[in-house]
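Appendix C. Worked example: Acetylornithine aminotransferase
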Amino acid sequence: MVNEKIKAAEENLIHVYNRFPIALERGEGVYLYDTNGKKYLDFAAGFAVSGLGYGNQKLNAALKFQIDQLYHTSNLYYHMNCGEAAQKLNQISGMDRVFFTNSGSEANEGALKAARRYAYNKKSGRYQFIAMENSFHGRSFGAVSVTGHTAYREPFEPMLPGVSFAEFNNLDSVKALVTDQTCAIILEPLQGEGGINLATQEFMEGIRRICDENDILMICDEVQCGMGRTGAMFAWQKFGVKPDILTMAKGIGNGIPVGAFAMTEKVAQASLKPGDHGATYGGNPLACMAVKTVIDIFEEEKIVEHVNEVSEYLTDRLEELVQHVDGVLERKGTGLMQGIVLKKPAAQVNNRAIEEGLLVIQAQGNVLRLVPPLIIEKEHVDEMIPKLTKALTE
Ligand SMILES: *Cc1c(COP(=O)(O)O)cnc(C)c1O
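Step 2, the predicted output written as structure tokens:
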């Protein structure tokens, strides 16, 4: 339970989060500890962020070094970390040019602006966006305007004009929305908040075809499903369907606030120009140290290969739950981004899981989301299953 001092201090915050009644203090590997010393097995990773878990010595040393050296310069000057992080990120994402932001929302804002700028450059007059139902792209105005969930948009209307929503995995519903004013189509290859909905191969290929045939840009939001989570470095690579613009955040900094949007050279040549966009903190030496070191660790420790191995085991164990535990209707997702559809309210099971010392996340559609650090081992899956089973049944 959270003590009175923590509760009193919390009264100074604008109340937009309904928190669980624990206060976390410390992390080690795939475990977190609260202020009472209680230990939690982490299958939430701070919303699919901490892929490398907690207390990675190489990452921590790099960040400590950078704090002592220099951690803010502004984008008026060069800093080696920025270029190096960009180079490494482009290598793993398959894109050519990247802009660093401070969050996923900001990455999507930048992507939407870049798409509009591309249309402006071509004097095409295109300004409309097609987005997906049940999508989530963030909370800033542009990002929330393309988020396919009414509750997130309605209190803040009017939204950005020219946005329409298609049914995810229904190509005909996308085709029906295409006009000669369509500028870009934005989608998550694997929807997170929306309930762990994986795009079909046919859908990804179909979107690519619609974009190519109509001079529309394809934007993939891989803020959550990117950086190894699906068993590919980026989910688009699993499909072999490359977007024109890719957005990233969560996993790329392992918790140091950083996001990015990246584009192909073709788009970059006809999109943002000097003076069109910027971010005071974006791509600062500390954030870029995080990105480049995280990528180094991913390569040295073969994290993506590991995700493929351990996620196969997780998948099997979750399928067993579907078979044997009453009230678990279905398993969804892939890699280490999975969910189970429940009969009981997911919130109730989530609360019970916390009592059992297990952290998980809810998603839309009464889904319990499992997005652990990517470094979990089979033994952690074996530890999770009985805790989850207890939370589901008792
Ligand atoms: C979390 C998330 C965002 C928003 O990122 P913030 O860093 O919270 O702004 C955008 N898109 C997707 C798919 C996300 O999961």
